[in-house]
């Protein structure tokens, strides 16, 4: 849920449970509200039932139209499990939804949440060379297959040439480890694909999920009032790069190679990140500590004080 929160609200984690699961979490400033302000059809598409984890209430209360298991005709579903329909069925529905907007002459933004890469890792047989229900590798490969199939089908659509596809994980496979915040297990991929507009390349910048929305809107050259705490990483100085990693007990702020960790009861620790996973204890840098507190406490105060509401 923290990943959905970050991608939608561009806000670092706040104390307590995810905003997605809280009451009174509607009418917030979000990626969807920016697109709405530009006249877009805005959707949240999920292969399961949207009431799970309060997603219907959160996305519906923030201007997204819900497309979930209820919206998908049974004849379109080759397979489903406890999480929902197979990813390919969800993407087929999404194609129809985007087609509807295009025929109506409206641009659209669709946030799609896949489910097949979850235990028990089951999916339709015959799609990939790994049998269903045999582990995470199969779940990942099937989701990759479904995304590739979706893009191949989208390529034949009249709206493809003017569409930006963003593929990003909502969370890592596991954050459990010997340290409270194993940095390497918070490293996730993001791919931005728009062959008619974006040249192939690799961006090796330190960034967080909260930077996804501002970066996408920057690529679209949108001019908009913002409350986002994330940054457009393609148009901001590299010296300002930082990342946020957290669990239910610790809040981490990573800048360059220093991880500053805020813990309960005002405990603070700092580590130098060596290689992919080695953390070496170092003295706390007062400047980095102030920045970490400003981000995390600022996000909490903005939400609690009602200051993160949608811009009229």
TrEMBL record:
Residues 22-221 form the Sulfatase N-terminal domain. The keyword Transmembrane helix applies. Gene3D superfamilies: 3.30.1120.80, Alkaline Phosphatase, subunit A. It is a multi-pass membrane protein. Keywords: Cell membrane, Membrane, Transmembrane, Transmembrane helix. GO terms for cellular component: plasma membrane. This is Sulfatase N-terminal domain-containing protein. InterPro entries: Alkaline_phosphatase_core_sf, OpgB/LTA_synthase_biosynth, Sulfatase_N. It comes from Noviherbaspirillum denitrificans. It is found in: Cell membrane.
């Amino acid at each position: 849920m923290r990943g959905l929160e970050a991608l939608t609200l561009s806000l670092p984690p706040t104390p307590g449970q995810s905003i997605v699961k809280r009451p009174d979490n509607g009418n917030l400033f979000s990626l969807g509200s920016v697109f709405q302000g530009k006249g877009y059809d805005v959707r949240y598409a999920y292969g399961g039932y949207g009431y799970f984890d309060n997603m219907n209430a959160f996305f519906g209360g923030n201007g997204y139209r819900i497309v979930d298991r209820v919206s998908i005709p049974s004849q379109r579903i080759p397979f489903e499990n406890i999480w929902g329909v197979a990813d390919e069925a969800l993407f087929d529905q999404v194609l129809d939804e985007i087609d509807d907007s295009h025929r109506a002459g409206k641009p659209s933004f669709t946030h799609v949440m896949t489910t097949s890469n979850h235990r028990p890792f089951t999916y339709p047989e015959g799609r990939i060379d790994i049998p269903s229900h045999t582990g995470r590798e199969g779940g990942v490969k099937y989701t990759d297959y479904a995304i590739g199939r979706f893009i191949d089908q989208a390529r034949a659509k009249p709206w493809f040439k003017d569409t930006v596809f963003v593929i990003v994980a909502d969370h890592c496979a596991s954050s459990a480890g010997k340290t409270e915040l194993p940095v390497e297990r918070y490293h996730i991929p993001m791919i931005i694909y728009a062959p008619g507009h974006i040249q192939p390349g690799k961006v090796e910048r330190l960034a967080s999920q909260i930077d996804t929305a501002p970066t996408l809107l920057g690529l679209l050259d949108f001019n908009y009032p913002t409350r986002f705490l994330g940054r457009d990483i393609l148009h901001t100085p590299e010296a300002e790069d930082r990342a946020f990693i957290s669990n239910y007990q610790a809040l981490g702020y990573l800048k360059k190679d220093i991880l500053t960790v805020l813990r309960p009861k005002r405990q603070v620790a700092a580590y130098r990140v060596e290689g992919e996973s080695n953390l070496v204890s170092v003295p706390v840098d007062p400047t980095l500590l102030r920045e970490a507190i400003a981000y995390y406490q600022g996000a909490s105060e903005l939400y609690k004080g009602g200051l993160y509401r949608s811009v009229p």
